[in-house]
Amino acid sequence: ISVVDSFGNESDPVVMAAPAAGYIVPLTDTDVPVIGNFSPAPGSVINKTVNISVLATDNVGVKKIELFVKHDSGTETINGVKYKKIGESQSGNTGFGTIAFNTKDAAFGLADGSIELLARVSDTSGNQAVKAAAYVLDNTAPPKPALKAAPAELSVALTITSGGAAADFSH
Fold it and tell me: Is the peptide bond before 40 cis (omega within 30 degrees of 0)?
């Protein structure tokens, strides 16, 4: 065996005994993918439609990331627990690793409170890894905010009384 670089320089050959089969058999990939972090971070409050990103690596290549929500009427059983599939992200597609989760979708039948999401990552050799993350679901709308305006000299004084938390305010 010898190697040639992009300038045409060739290395000295290395003599190798041919295996009995007459060809070299590559090693089988048995390493499972590694699932790192979720974004938003586990423990976060989520609502409406939120993008869940899963960071995963593999020694050969990550092929697919699937996202599930734990549910008693789930159709997919993973490690003895029932889940409903939210969606998947395929390698090579724009936004790989990010899956939109509509928390208000009636198909999931989710109530406010603690929920568990599970990511399942597959590599190009079919090896799989799973990792769960807990979130707090809050789709309850806050009370309507109150706005009062009072004239002042060359200005208007505005007073806003929020019925909810600061995080519920958008602009």
Answer: yes
